[in-house]
Write a structure and sequence with these properties.
Mean pLDDT of chain B: 93
Mean pLDDT of chain A: 95
Shape of chain B: globular
Distance between the termini of chain B: 37 Å
Low-confidence stretches of chain B: none
Order of helices and strands of chain B: EEEEEEEEEEE
Strand content of chain B: over 45%
Number of strands of chain B: 11
Oligomer: heterodimer
Low-confidence stretches of chain A: none
Radius of gyration of chain A: 13 Å
Largest interface: A-B, 23 and 21 residues
Largest sheet of chain A: 7 strands, mixed
Number of helices of chain A: 0
Largest sheet of chain B: 6 strands, mixed
Shape of chain A: globular
Amino acid sequence: NAGVTQTPKFRILKIGQSMTLQCTQDMNHNYMYWYRQDPGMGLKLIYYSVGAGITDKGEVPNGYNVSRSTTEDFPLRLELAAPSQTSVYFCASRPVNGGETQYFGPGTRLLVL
Amino acid sequence: RKEVEQDPGPFNVPEGATVAFNCTYSNSASQSFFWYRQDCRKEPKLLMSVYSSGNEDGRFTAQLNRASQYISLLIRDSKLSDSATYLCVVNPSPYNNNDMRFGAGTRLTVKP
């Protein structure tokens, strides 16, 4: 199993551009999450999904959108990039019956200039 | 007050030392608690869950104090490979176990 994979690893965006961060997991986990981690700060939940077709806002959803059309994929969309969205983005997943342990992808570093 | 608060450190200790980290949480209804480890520029990985009765995994011991609203992590006989940032994670809601709150982390450097 590859686990949770994220692409791209690193991206530079100009203000106002849009992009999609990809996240895929091959563990058949129902629950998936998007977090952002700013320097010196804890991870903050952006959006999560409890299954295909179901998404919900986390603590900091503004400026982002998500979709969940399959169990495996949970892309995060930035429509109008702003410097405040410069961060490291982590995707995570967990199974329904596996406790609350989350399995994280390697992260995407995003710089908005 | 932050929901989850940790001493950022850094803690610089020699190999073989015992080191302890504390983490306080603000919501008394918090249900579950975890310690994650994050290596530099890597993703977080679960180190251990924290149970009401406390738990131990080799050199690592985690404790929960609900009355004072803190959890602790004790590392005995520190190894160079223990150098990392340790994240305290709390589930504040009895109704939603998807909205975890992360502390900013405590950085540990173990030196030869």
